[in-house]
Amino acid sequence: MNAPVNLVSTSTTHLLHRAGQLAEDLFARSIGDIGLTARQFVVLSVVETLDDPSQTALCEISGIDRSTLADIVRRLVARGLLSRRRTRQDARMYAVRITPEGEEMLRRALPIANKVDDALVESLSPEQREQFGAFLQKVVARQGPRPQAQDAKVQGELRS
To answer: From residue 130, how far is each of 5, 17, 49, 72, 144 by CA, in Å?
Structure first.
């Protein structure tokens, strides 16, 4: 009967999923009446640092899939936190821009998001925190902007 418990406690996939759940829950509880999700915060943060990014660019940078990102942008536009317009280069694409209200929301949310990040790794020493962040970045970078290519590689290895 120890095998299932061992798998749950050692599976990288499961542990990353659980850590993600814990992070999302802590963010939601901490952000309170500001009313942003962690993904909405990421989108606002990315848009704020770029010059009218396309939604495609936002997907590539954030790692959020197209349909989810489109829904997030739509909700942030409806709240007046982002604006979007069709690009001149391609009428099918939207360029996204943060509004003054979005900048204010981001200014209010940033210290909370930083506290959430700190709380998530508070059980680690400063050196371990740095290593943990570097390890996560390495895992994410390894997947690249197109995880489908990695999926095909893994599927091929599993069939071998």
So the answer is: 29, 21, 24, 30, 21
